[in-house]
Amino acid sequence: MITVEKADFFSPESQYLIEKLSSELAAITGNSGKSHFTADSLEEERSLWVLARNPQGEAIGCGAIRPLTQHIAELKRMFADRSSPGIGQALLDFLETSAAQRGYTELWLETRHVNVRAVRFYLKNGYGQIENYGPYIGREEAVCFSKTLRPVHLA
Question: N or C: which end of the chain has fewer CB within 10 A?
């Protein structure tokens, strides 16, 4: 079973997975994606960095949410090492629920058209394509998605 938990962005495990993600993105898209996400964005209230772990406790995936507006969070640096099935789904489910718990009503993200695996994954999970936003405006290689989150009622 895969578990997902809040984690330290600066931990060796987190940094290892970020580097794996960056090198994989560079191979797929020609860009590591590092320029649009820094640790500073995790200092904002309502931001979150998480790691996915396998049953042995090894970090096998990562992801983050950060605020874009009062009601919209952005999904960033999502990565699964594909060592076992369901990592990406576990990460996405956890981050969507966490975003809703933090009061966000939508989750936005950007990937590249050429990253076909990611595009299919987000479409399969109910994301719809939107106009490119922020730093992705006018970038033909970029594709942006949005999903309306279900409200989470805390007991």
Answer: C
Please report, for the chain, the start and end positions of each structural domain, with discontinuous segments joined by +.
3-148
**Collapsed DSSP state (helix, strand, coil) of residue 73:** strand
The pLDDT of residue 150: 87
49's CB contacts (< 8 A; 6+ apart) are 6, 7, 8, 9, 14, 42, 62, 63, 64
**Region for residue 70 given its phi and psi (left: phi exceeds 0; alpha: psi -120 to 50; beta: otherwise):** alpha
Dihedral of alpha carbons 129, 133, 136, 139, sign: positive
Tell me the whole-structure pTM to 2 decimals. 0.90
Alpha carbon of 121 to those of 38, 64, 68, 96, 128: distances in Å? 24, 17, 22, 14, 11
pLDDT, one tens digit per residue, over 93-141 is 999 999 999 999 999 999 999 999 999 999 999 999 999 999 999 999 9
Q: CATH code for 3-148?
A: 3.40.630.30
Helix (H) or strand (E) holding 40: none
Amino acid at 50: V
Nearest to 51 by CA among 96, 18, 25: 18
The dihedral of CA 10, 74, 143, 59: what is its sign?
positive
